[in-house]
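Limitations
The C-alpha cells in this dataset are predictions for the assembled complex, not deposited experimental models. Users should treat interface geometry with appropriate caution, especially where small molecules or nucleic acid strands are included. An illustrative entry is reproduced here so readers can see what is and is not provided.
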Amino acid sequence: MAESIMSNHIDTEQKLERALTEACKGLPLRRAPSTLELRVVDELERRAALPWWRVSFVHWPAAPRVAFVIVCIALVAATFLGGVFAFMGDRSFNEVTALVLSWVQPFLAVMSSAGGVATLLVRVIPPLWLYGGLAFGIMLYVALFGLGAAAYRLYLRPSSVGDL
Amino acid sequence: MRAYQDMVFSTAARLAGNDTQAEDIAQEVFIRAFEHFSDLRTSVTAGGWLKTVTTNLTLNYLNRYRKRWRLFSEMRPATDDGDPDAPEMEWEIPDTILAELSAEQRCAIVDAALRQLPDHQRLPLVLYHFEDLSYQEIAIKLNVSLTKIKTDIRRARAALLPLLQNGGAARDTLDG
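Predicted assembly:
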C-alpha cells in the first residue's frame, strides 16, 4: 500500500518535471530594455572621467601605488618609533624595563587572585549546582535563539506561494 | 553588446524575478565585460563567460539582501511541513503545459509565474530548468544542502503548475 502511494508520488513528480521542462524549453529570450546600452555607456564614461585617486587602488597608476605604500610604511614606523622614544625619554633601558614590570606585576597578581577565587568556588559549590547553572545558561541561550527564529518566521519571512 | 544583451537580461530577470534589478545586474555585467574586452573580443566562449558572470552577479546581488536572514530561514528544516516524501500535488498533472500557446505567450506566462515564487524556490528552479545545472551543482552554487535544493525545486514546481495553468486559462479567455 505504502509502496504503491510512493510509486504514484514519484510518477507524479517525474511527470510534472517533464511537463515543466517541455514548457520551459525553447522559450525566447526577454528583450533587454532599450535604455540598457545607453546606461552602460553612460556608466563607463562616468567611471572613465573619475580622477585616478577616486577609483579602486588596484587601478591606480604604478608610481602613486608605490609611493602610497612607502608613505604608509613610513607613517607606521614613525608612529611606532615616536611612541617608543616618547616613552623612554632620557631613561635608561633598565629603568624602562623596571617600569614596565612594575605595571605588569599588579595585573598578574589580580589574575592570580581571580584564579584562586574561581578554584575555591568550584570546590565549595556542589557539582549539581554547577551543572544545573550550566544547563540553565544553555537553556536560556536556546530559548533566545528559538524566540528569534519564531519572530522571524512570524513577522519577517517572505511569503511563499503556498501562503498566498 | 547588442548580440548578448537579451541573453544577459533574460538570465538576470528570470533569476532575480525583478526587471529593475535585472537591468542593474546587466549593466554591471557589461561593465565587467568591458574591463575584460581584450580577452573577450576574440574569445569563442564570450557568451558562456557572460552567462556565468550574470548568474554569479545575480546570486551575489540577491545574497546581499538575504544574508542577514539566512540563518533563520535555513533553520527551517526541509521537512518541517511534514514528510518530505509525502504527496503534495493532489491535482491532475497534465502531459503538457501551455503547449497550445505560442513561444512568446508561453514566455510571458512563465516569466510572470516565476516572479511570484519566493527566491528560495525560484533560484534553484531557474538554475535547473533554464541553466541546465544538476541538483548537486545548484546546491554548491547556492551553498545549501542537496536535500533542501530537491525539496525547494519540488515545491517550486508544485507552486508553479497552478500559476501556469491559471495564466494559460486567462490567456485563452482573453483570446476567446
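Some entries come with short summary sentences. For this one: Residues 146-175 of chain B form the longest helix (30 residues).
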